[in-house]
Amino acid sequence: MNFNATLIGQSITFIIFVWFCMRFVWPPIMLALQQRKERVAEGLAAGERGKHELELARKKALETLHEAKQQAAEVISRAEKRGAEIVEEAKNEAVEEGGRVKAAALVAIEQEVNRAKETLRGQVVEIATAGAGRILKRELDATANDELIKDLVAQI
Question: How far is it, in rounded angstroms, from Cα 134 to Cα 130?
Fold first, then answer.
């Protein structure tokens, strides 16, 4: 066989094969590779978006937790303040009630003192009348007795 003819035949066959591959085989392979490249890029972008969203979710969770702690501290502070107000109100009410009880007790004491004075005056008058009657060795009549009692009460 002739080496030149074989070489030319093989070259023509190779050129036809390359043309056939470039025309029918190469585009689907390139298309598959391009689609694969796009899917990988989309996957990487989705991964990055997921990381970013995860970081945002963490930040939001920390902010929410911080806000919840602040609200809890505020509620506790308000509760403590209200507790102190209630204690102060109770103290004020107790002082007021004590003042009312003291005033009522003073009024009651004053009334009792007045009653005791009146009773004592009556007893003093009776004693004075009895003493005067013994001194005079006689009993006084009712009008004279009343006048004597009035005079003694006025002096006392």
Answer: 6
The number of folded domains in the chain is 1
C-alpha neighbours within 13 Å on the C-beta side of residue 47: 6
Domain hosting residue 74, numbered range: 3-155
Could you tell me the pTM of the whole model?
Answer: 0.43
Q: Mind listing the pLDDT tens digit of every residue in the chain (156 residues)?
A: 577 888 999 999 999 999 999 999 999 999 999 999 999 999 999 999 999 999 999 999 999 999 999 999 999 999 999 999 999 999 999 999 999 999 989 999 999 999 988 888 878 777 777 767 656 655 556 676 677 677 766 766
Q: What are the two backbone dihedrals, phi and then psi, of residue 22, each rounded to the nearest 5 degrees?
A: -65, -35
